[in-house]
Hints:
- By secondary structure, the protein is an alpha/beta fold.
- It has ten helices and 16 strands.
- GO terms for molecular function: glycosyltransferase activity.
Amino acid sequence: MLNSALISRNLARLLRRGPTDLSSFAIERRELCPAEEVTRPPALHPDGAMDRIIALSPWRDWEVERGLIAGTPILHAPTEALILPDVVLAGAYLYRGGAKERIGHGEARMLDPDLPPSQTIPEACLVSGWTGADFFGNFMQDSLPLEMIPGDDAPRIAAPTKPYSHASGYRVLLDLPEPPMPRHARIGRLTIYRDFSQNSFKLARYRQLRARLRSAIGTFPSPKGIFIRRGSTQGEPRWLKNEEQLEEMLGKLRFDIIDPDQMQADTIARIALDAPVVVSVEGSHLGHALYALADGGAFLVIQPPNRFAMPYKEVADCLGMRFGFVVGHPDHGGFNVDLKEIHYMLERLA
Length: 350
């Protein structure tokens, strides 16, 4: 089908008509949580770890990472609801005039065979964003809490998202049915949310979801700790070459090993429930620990030397959890982790 919204947008841009920022069309803004300045602890790491960092993840910024490592105070932006009139949803994008904003997974195409006939929706609340649509970790930490913002009777819609194999299982555990995905619609009054901050409003929703998980799966003996394999995720390859030796060491410490490739969401949640610490290579699969880890628990993240990233330090700070990391040693297309450093960091995080 012809994507007329994209054509109209490109024409408006060519003629330089109107604003290019979708937020500029808002007829109403509601502050759901004001800006908050908070203190945060430094990240723990062994001596020499920083010297092994070769490159940063392309999605991260060094100024942000340094603040997370040092534990400097941060000013969280407010969480807002914006009301937009007469907006078109086409695939993974919203359009109005010369403005275009990605809110789902997929490319914008003039001729889109996946685009169904347009429907009219009088009013809706958008409960998805591109980060959660592209990455499982962001689906867990961004998209699911976002779905909790509208009132119980508010009409929700979402944009196309990658088909995460564990999404449906977590939706059952967290009592969050999948919102409708119209894919192509003209919406008379659309509410969108600017919900990027790890603020007190996000924390309240994290706590609700953590409580729902425990209510859904009941009581199980908590493990000494968990190790989550990265496995064959849809993300960038991060090859921990001595993973087998690491698992053997952690097994002797009575850690449970979680293999997302071989386990459903409810099994993962039961194994991980109230673990005091999670060890894993940095990546979206750490999202499995977000709602199951014990209150006051700890993250020990193994950083690939060529893809350093600290998103789970942001989550740990919000939840009042401890965070430590080690940096791997490059080794022929992958990296190795120093097992003595892992043991040392587990003692520091205990």
